[in-house]
């Protein structure tokens, strides 16, 4: 049976879709206000309250929670002077995965935002894969060659 994943975050949609090419998983770009009851998993971006509604919704948050939990987390982290921020993927107050992003003294906010997006693109497909297969996410998967493991030809997750 084909599993269905709804993505409400257009910046990572193509990456997630490419990751699941040639697999029995349908990835659909949708609006956050659409009915999500037909999806096995829905991914939202920086929508903490929405992610609290049901177990089949995960939220990508652009900080290492619990720090900077607000909608403007990127700006707050950058302007606060912290040297480490990152990405959190969570569902119903349960952190599924976090990954750090360093903020150097000469880092520009655009560089910081690009690094956050790069981490989201690498981390999210593998977290989704783990959740859909009822497995615990393993950070070792981030550093392995998933193309040979999953049999895909060009998923970009290991490049």
Would you write up a description of this structure?
With 159 residues, the chain is of the alpha/beta class. It has one domain (3-140): Formyl transferase, N-terminal domain (Rossmann fold, 3-Layer(aba) Sandwich), CATH 3.40.50. 32% of the residues lie in helices and 23% in strands. It contains five helices and six strands, in the order E-H-E-E-H-E-H-E-E-H-H. It has helices spanning 10-19, 48-51, 73-80, 109-132, 146-150, and strands at 3-7, 25-29, 41-45, 57-61, 84-91, 94-102. It has a six-stranded mixed β-sheet with strand order 2-1-3-4-5-6. Helix 2 (48-51) links the parallel strand 3 (41-45) and strand 4 (57-61). Helix 1 (10-19) crosses helix 4 (109-132). The longest helix is centred in the C-terminal third of the chain and has 24 residues, at 109-132. Residues 153-159 have low confidence and may be disordered.
Key structural traits:
159 residues, Rossmann fold, 6 strands, disordered C terminus
């Amino acid at each position: 049976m084909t599993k269905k994943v709804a993505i409400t975050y257009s910046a990572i949609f193509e990456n997630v879709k490419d990751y699941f090419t040639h697999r029995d998983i349908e990835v659909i770009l949708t609006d956050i206000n659409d009915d999500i009851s037909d999806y096995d998993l829905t991914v939202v971006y920086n929508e903490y309250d929405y992610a609290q509604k049901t177990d089949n919704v995960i939220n990508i948050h652009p900080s290492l929670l619990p720090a900077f939990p607000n909608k403007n987390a990127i700006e707050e982290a950058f302007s606060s002077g912290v040297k480490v921020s990152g990405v959190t993927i969570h569902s119903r107050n349960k952190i599924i995965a976090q990954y750090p992003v360093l903020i150097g003294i000469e880092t520009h906010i655009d560089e910081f935002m690009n690094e956050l997006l790069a981490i989201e693109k690498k981390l999210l497909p593998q977290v989704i894969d783990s959740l859909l297969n009822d497995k615990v996410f393993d950070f070792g998967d981030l550093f392995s060659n998933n193309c040979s493991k999953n049999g895909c030809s060009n998923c970009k997750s290991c490049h």
